[in-house]
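Before relying on records like the one below, remember that each one covers exactly one chain. Contacts with other chains, cofactors or solvent are not represented anywhere in the record.
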Amino acid sequence: MKRFLFSLIGLACILSAWAWKPIFIGHRGCYIGVMNTVETFINGVDHYGYQGLECDVRVTADGYYVISHDETTNAVGGNLTVANATLAELQAESYSQTRGGVAYTGHICTVARYLDICKEKNVTPVVELKWATGINNNDMSNFPGLAALIEEKGLTDKVIILTSMRKSLEYVRTNFPALKCQFLCNSNWATHFDWIVQWGLMPSIQAGCFDKYTVKRFHDKGIEVAVWTVNSIANYKLYGEMGVSMITCDYLMPNDMPEIDDINWDAIVEPLDPPKQDIGQ
């Protein structure tokens, strides 16, 4: 009986070693606070327990790196165009946003402050490049300053540069090879597959635009896959069981998510005509 009990304990240890969870990235910080503000970044770690924080970078008229999803601040109650405003003008605005029935207020966050939070909380910064002055497919003259800021904060080996701008990613991979890069995409991942592999990128694919055979194709090339944006337990399990290694979400609680059984990649054989999937968030 003891031998049988010890065998069960040993088996349980082996099985638990093969259970895992993807890395959780807080989308624009998290759902508590005005998006992309100091409050959402801090709550993304302290409340939700995210292992990384995603933000959206733009450049002010006086050359500062700030965080704003849109070209203007209208979506959060402001009335400025980021590229035409100074940092002081942007900081003077008060932002407001109601999320989940709760009204929040806040102010614009600089990339420097965001990186400080990531370093203090020991989480991965996921820096999405938006089309901005000196950071776009035609002109990357402002990117070296951003890279220098990342290096100054001691985060070069930890940060992930994320964007849908192909030429911008080629520039980063060529001139700053130490920086990890992700290609933000949707169903167009298929037409960019060879390019993604060539440049050693990690695809971050929109939910609903891929299946387990997609993940297997990249896995066979030694490339992991990320997914955005997932906000239900059902879809967490769905994408986790596909083998994605990183999930961007607004309000999922990582500690509440079940562990995923290890993927048997050899058992995934792509059919000649893969079924289409309609997968939401």
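The radius of gyration is 20 Å.
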